[in-house]
Amino acid sequence: MLSDIEIAKQAKMLPIKEVAEKAGFNEEELVYYGKYKAKIDDSAYGKSKKNGKLVLVTAINPTPAGEGKTTTTVGLGQAFYQLGVNSAIALREPSLGPVFGLKGGAAGGGYSQVVPMQDINLHFTGDLHAMTAANNLLCAMIDNHIYQGNAQNIDPKQIIFKRCLDMNDRALRNVVVGLGKVTDGTVRPDGFQITVASEVMAILCLAKDIFDLKERLGNIHIAYRYDKTPVFAKDIKAHGAMTALLKEAIQPNLVQTLENSPCLIHGGPFANIAHGCNSVRATKLCLERFDYCITEAGFGSDLGAEKFLNIKCRKMGVSPACIVLVATIRALKYNGGADVKKGAEENLEALEKGMDNLRKHISNLRGFGVPVVVALNVFATDTEAEKAAVRKATEEEGATFEYSYAHAEGGKGTIDLAKKVIEACELGSDFKFTYDENDTIENKVEAIAKTIYGADGVNFDPAAKASIEAIVKMGMDKLPVCLAKTQYSLSDNPKLLCRPTGFKITVKDFKLCSGAGFIVGYLGDILTMPGLPKVPAAEAIDIDESGEIVGLF
């Protein structure tokens, strides 16, 4: 069996100019980054008002067995293309953290990938580097402002904006800056977070255009003064230069799938510590220029999809016509207590228990008033009895069911799923949010906890209560909430698998992201700077004797 990178290397890519022409973009709208990549500039917007249908792909809670959400999304895009449907997929850009950490790649898998896979997984068009630079420019200007006289009267111990790096590096979680001579700056505590968890990333993904981007960057809450009043990035005049660094990064990237169908790939916030969706600009362009836009949200539907629906859709003023929920029999059995190493063995008892996780996700998504299609990502070891059990459970919950063979067969393996998705999109929806953003912060969190997670209630730690007070005092409490929690459980405890009951979640603290336009609540032990595992994927990545990259997934 060929590895993903071996399959990608055999791809017969078209020059990106040809992919663009087939997708309806002209050369004047493109900024070329080599032969197979391009950015799409502002001139492409506003030329068409197709008002295409939005298809969201999400999944059950992730497990070590894997679910295949991105693979299914790419497979669907290829299937739509084979069916002659005017469509495109919109994905997030991979972060170098997971690429060198656990995953080793994040551009789909098997015969459902976006290419050039190596470029996309590594530096791509430099978007994440630009965001890192913009973020750290702001940090440098904060420290310089204090060193040069501190006209804003910033309290160095109350600087809340952190530096970032697009790499898993636990040693940078907590640092002290300014050590050395007096001319080396003010000594103060600081820390790094991974770029994809930064507010700059969230802002770029939610900005409507370059001017909205600049305004949002200026509204970043960076610190408090000695008198406890807030300081924003615009107060130290950092937002203009930050915008200049992001002038190209705000433009969506155009690439292709293995079957030469179009893919817009832009932005990459994590869903467990950020909002987990690709950019508003890429999605908006897809909806303007295509009849269908197929996009995905990170991790399980309790994370990425909840934020996509309650934050991104709210900000964009759109709603999905259909939601695809990806599941695997192996993952369901794991949720039911089976050993992940025995995922290939038939185990109907564990499967039945694990399907409570699937049922909860279906129920949650149907609660948004949108048709749901369950895509069972099929493995060769899945038995007929197991597949029949999942179909039965799905249909009893009122969702449509279909198999996906995206990994093994590409677009051909997802044709039937694509047809079911198109049918579901014609059913119509009655979309509704989980909460009213004008409600209190506590009530918004409780609505998500009880409705989406199935919790009995919410505990707020003293730090969280103090943060709520500060946010209310600033008049910023009427914003959506973005809850950061473990991806492995519907609860805030990663060990509570399947569909836990009789639990409460605990909010440890809140962080106002006034530029992005939401309030982050931290549940459990959430790290915004991950660390590398004992055996990082980076150990297997290399350059061979012919100069080719090997070991990248």
Could you tell me the strand content as a percent range? 15-25%
Structural class: alpha/beta
* Sheet with most strands: 12 strands, mixed
End-to-end Cα distance: 13 Å
Q: Give the integer mean of the pLDDT values.
A: 95
Number of strands: 25
What share of residues is helical?
25-40%
Oligomer: single chain
The backbone outline, from C-alpha atoms, is globular
Unreliable stretches covering 5 or more consecutive residues:
none
> What Rg is obtained from the alpha carbons, in whole angstroms?
23 Å
- Number of helical regions: 18
Features:
four-stranded mixed beta sheet; 25 strands; 20% strand; single chain; 18 helices; twelve-stranded mixed beta sheet; 553 residues
Topology diagram in text:
Layout: H1 4-9, H2 16-23, E1 30-32, E2 38-40, E3 53-59, H3 69-82, E4 87-91, H4 96-100, E5 108-109, E6 112-115, H5 117-121, H6 127-147, E7 154-159, E8 163-165, E9 175-177, E10 188-190, E11 192-194, H7 199-206, H8 210-218, E12 221-225, E13 230-232, H9 239-245, E14 253-257, E15 262-265, H10 280-289, E16 292-296, H11 301-316, E17 322-327, H12 329-335, H13 348-366, E18 372-377, H14 384-396, E19 400-404, H15 406-409, H16 415-425, H17 441-453, E20 457-460, H18 462-473, E21 481-484, E22 504-513, E23 518-523, E24 542-543, E25 549-550
Parallel strand pairs: 3-16, 3-17, 4-15, 4-16, 8-11, 17-18, 18-19, 20-22, 21-23
Antiparallel strand pairs: 1-2, 2-14, 5-6, 6-14, 7-12, 9-10, 12-13, 14-15, 22-23, 24-25
